[in-house]
Amino acid sequence: MELEKPKLLPTLGSYLVHHRRSILLTAAFALVFAAVFALYQLPRESVGYAFLCCTALGALIASVDFSRYYRRHCMMVQLRKSIALGTAPLPAPENLSERDYTVLLQLLDSERLRVIAEKEHTVRSMTEYYTLWAHQIKTPIAAMDLLVQSGEGETFRELSVQLFRVEQYVEMVLSYLRLQNNSTDYVIREYDLDSLVRQTVRKYAGQFIRKKLTVSLGELHCTVLTDEKWLCFVLGQLLSNAIKYTNQGGVTITLEENKTLCIADTGIGIAAEDLPRLGEHGFTGFNGRGDKRATGIGLYLCRTVLSRLSHSMEIRSEIGKGTRVYLHLEHVSLEKE
Prior knowledge:
Blueprint: H1 8-18, H2 20-39, H3 44-82, H4 96-149, H5 154-179, E1 188-192, H6 193-203, H7 205-210, E2 214-217, E3 223-227, H8 228-244, E4 250-256, E5 260-265, H9 285-290, H10 297-308, E6 312-318, E7 322-328
Parallel strand pairs: 2-4
Antiparallel strand pairs: 1-3, 4-5, 5-7, 6-7
């Protein structure tokens, strides 16, 4: 392993500070011997020769000791960048003090690993529980949907809309849980973009009709390398947001150059100061603060999914003039995060 070389002078300064007591004690001894030699009026040549021999020997010992100190420092600097899971790579202690510190580090590392394992177990149990809950809740939702569809009138239509929203929120929970797991399956292949967009629009047709909004589809026939389920999830989230914040007019979906899908609405728009933070976990912005039920999780999931698929998203908007969302679908990579 090639060691990174720290700067020599700062290391030398640290070495001298570390041995300052020994240096001061040696200087004190030298003064005592010099005073005794002066009192007994010993020959200067003898004293000077002894002083030079001691100085040379001390310099040699100090050089060897500093060399070991410097190599050890280089090793610790390298370990500081590579150590991740434990204290096993630490060099063997050379004295009792270092041995005590090593034991303390090992105890702390064992406690850290215990806490991590306990946390992972808690998160895994919670994820399994909510995944099971999300799957089980679909059964009563489907049963209620059948009962609602058998009725007539505005009340039943409103109940149908609310059930659709509940089902959508459950799907968001499942998607969130799946994205936390790196083993999520992706089926990457070429799909017809027009088919993906149309099946998503049909899913939200009732929402468009209820709010009396129009939906206009341009020429979307092109193939994109993506995952059908996850790209449709993103399209659904974007259409849901467009419907939610549009009161009149509608949504236009067009295909621009370089396989860029544009979803434009005539809604209330987004404040300019909120645009850079859209897609952050839990960020709702000015519109979300007006709607107390907003969680900010939808766009976060969209950005996460698109990143996993090596797509990207760009949002442009003006207050009162609507919002345009651009999905850049041309450049993709089959490598996962």
